[in-house]
Write a structure and sequence with these properties.
Helix content is 0%, strand content 59%. It is an all-beta fold.
Length: 81
């Protein structure tokens, strides 16, 4: 599991599921803005389910403009089983 630009999380689990997205919007991008993003792992946890272990990987990506103004933050949850 992983995100472009982040190191891959090596797991012995084979199936990856999209656990959903949480989006926060702070400002609108304007025509001509240079938008950049920075991603980080904000959490990795393991839980036991009736079908075996599951690992939850939260990746937070923040989008900013050329002035450093935060436009949007997205947290994606990936579930490995």
């Amino acid at each position: 599991a992983g995100n472009p630009g982040l190191p891959k999380v090596e797991l012995p689990l084979k199936r990856l599921l999209n656990g959903g997205y949480a989006c926060e919007f702070f400002a609108l991008a304007q025509v001509g803005d240079l938008v950049s993003r920075q991603a980080r792992y904000s959490g990795i946890s393991e839980r036991e389910s009736s079908s075996g272990p599951m690992v939850f990987i939260d990746t937070e990506t923040t989008y900013t403009n050329q002035h450093g103004v935060t436009l949007m933050r997205v947290v994606q949850t990936t579930i490995a089983r």
